[in-house]
What we know:
Layout (H helix, E strand, L loop, with lengths): L1 E10 L3 H13 L5 E4 L9 H4 L7 E2 L12 H12 L6 H21 L24 E2 L5 H14 L4 E3 L2 E9 L2 E9 L6 H4 E11 L20 H9 L3 E2 L4 E7 L9 H4 L3 E4 L16 H11 L12 H12 L4 E4 L14 H9 L7 H4 L3 H8 L1 H9 L10 E10 L2 E3 L11 E3 L4 E2 L10 H23 L7 H12 L5 E2 H15 L4 E2 H17 L1 E2 L5 H23 L9 E2 L18 E7 L2 E7 L11
Parallel strand pairs: 1-2, 1-8, 2-5, 8-15, 14-16, 17-19, 18-20
Antiparallel strand pairs: 3-4, 6-7, 7-8, 9-14, 9-21, 10-13, 11-12, 12-13, 21-22
Helix pairs in contact: 1-5, 1-15, 3-4, 4-15, 7-19, 13-14, 17-18, 17-19, 18-19
The structure holds flavin-adenine dinucleotide.
Flavin-adenine dinucleotide binds next to helix 1, helix 2, strand 6, strand 13 and helix 15.
Amino acid sequence: MKRINCDVLIIGAGGAGLRAAIEAKETLKKGKIVLVSKGGVGRSGVTATACSDRMAFHATLPYTEPGGPDNWKYHAEDIYRIGGYVSDGDLAMILAKEAQAAFEYLDHLGVPFVKKENGRVDQFITDGSDYARACYTGPRTANHIEEALLKKISSMDMVIIENCMIADLIQYRGRVIGALGIDQREEGSIENRLRVFSSKTTILATGGAGEAFKIHVFPEEMTGDGYAMAYRAGAELVNMEFIQIGPASIKTRLNCSGSLMRAVPRFVNENGKEFLKKYLPESMTCKDINNLIFEKGASWPVSLEKRTHLIDVAMFKEMVQGHRIFLDYTTNPESFSFQDLDQKWQDRYRREIKRPISSQQREQTPLDRLSEINPESIDWLKQHGIDLRSGEPIEIAPCIQHFQGGVKIRKKGNASLKGLYAAGECAGGQHGANRPGGNALLDGQVFGKIAGREAATEAITKSRHEISINQVKGYLKQWMTRNQGKKATEVRKEIQSVAARYASIVRTEEGLKEGIRIIQSLRKEGVRIDEKGVSFALETQNLLDVAEMILKACITRKESRGPHLFFNRFEDLHPLPSQDPRWRKYIVIQNQSGRMVLRKETPVSLRFQSKE
Ligand SMILES: Cc1cc2nc3c(=O)[nH]c(=O)nc-3n(C[C@H](O)[C@H](O)[C@H](O)COP(=O)(O)OP(=O)(O)OC[C@H]3O[C@@H](n4cnc5c(N)ncnc54)[C@H](O)[C@@H]3O)c2cc1C
């Protein structure tokens, strides 16, 4: 066992954790700041590894649409209104107001944001936004942010501990006083690998929990450890039912939106049969369906507020029938004609033309159209093992990409437990049901900075508590009970199946009840440490907590909103409507003496003061 004492402990080294660490050190120059990461720093977590066709960082700059000194207010309003009025308005205001400073900091650190000839940043519109706010470097914007922050940190006096999984937070009289971790590299007994961190304040920046679901675009180590340990320690969590899900390639993890939809491919199953029509209202003609496919290009994540959710529902239902699903670019969908697309879609298509073809050829196949508007995507897919030119289809599925909710924070990045802060995807309350694309990377920077500053400021006034050996033994005892029960590998597979079946696109009361029943019986049976080791078992235990929070939040929200599509019966064509304003509430989850308690609360509304 090793003891590590510090002023501020930061758990997680993605965009949020790194930003928090920098700010903590700058606030507490003589203080000891310790940054711990489960994987290698700069090699683990989403910020360091994720990419997509063009990753977005939202910022309202002085010249950003719609312009004027109040343009940040539109940004705050988008986060709050498009988020479905279930986030805290004051946090939305902080995000929007601080976006310029967050952008300028990264720009100053050397993140290569694309700029126009006049020196202004090139910004585009993302899913769910009304104005062009997305700054980008290309497909690897997040990775560039991680690299720049890491470079900055390497010149600072800070302790960085890699390959150490924090497994639990430790409390004393209602205050978080540190954490327990396990070194993941060392051979030997668990006692030898144990790390005991005593801190004055602690920041959770452990990212999301993609691994709770069968198919996701997260790295595998993203098991929601922060959500689970905060829950066990008694902190409040919020908005756990709001998870971003959209169609992605299973093989390459590429999100299939934008031009991949605007080329209007066929949605087929493994038998080559088109299936969308089966699950859509009878009144929809082939022309309507082809227009809907085109429209899906502009709304990747499923959302009640976008009628393209009908496509996500159809995909999901076809998969539940036991089918695999594909995008086929060799042949047009039934009765397709480019001329039948609505004029606004034809105009949009024309604006994207890169390698013009004749109008006759445009009518021929989805591949012809894709080669006209995005030839690079065809080459990219070939390099990653999918050859559209030889007729290969893209196998897709609804994939999990982002958790909108998390550990409930307030304006200082503070959680409901004393001494605890959270930032980035681990935190909740700053985003609502829908998250306009680009605001997650922003959020890590804004609240990472705030949490770092506030945790360091609080540490100045607090003294450190020694963690007693008895406390450590208590946790160890709990962990070591894992030599009975079901093998961790099997439990994890079952959790993923339950979440994918009952908490994905189509949610019903009946299904969610069944999901909760299975999770609770897995919990009763216990998670046995298997050949994958102790950390894998502890992660799996965390996934049980996370899955139960998601399922219970889903079953509590008896309406649809954002990605939460709640159906009366699985067979129904349409989800229940949103029940404004009765349900302009968020669901807060808390562990009270071992019982998972959920309650509805009214969020802080968005109100601008007259002088703001
Ligand atoms: C494919 C993809 C595309 C995306 N595109 C966009 C986009 O265009 N715009 C946008 O705004 N957002 C986007 N997002 C979301 C956004 O990238 C993430 O929300 C954000 O990067 C999360 O940053 P983070 O710092 O909170 O967590 P992460 O970057 O995931 O970092 C988490 C850190 O915590 C560590 N950790 C985890 N558990 C433990 C533990 N128990 N102990 C110690 N350390 C631990 C990990 O090792 C890692 O260092 C995308 C996400 C994906 C997956």
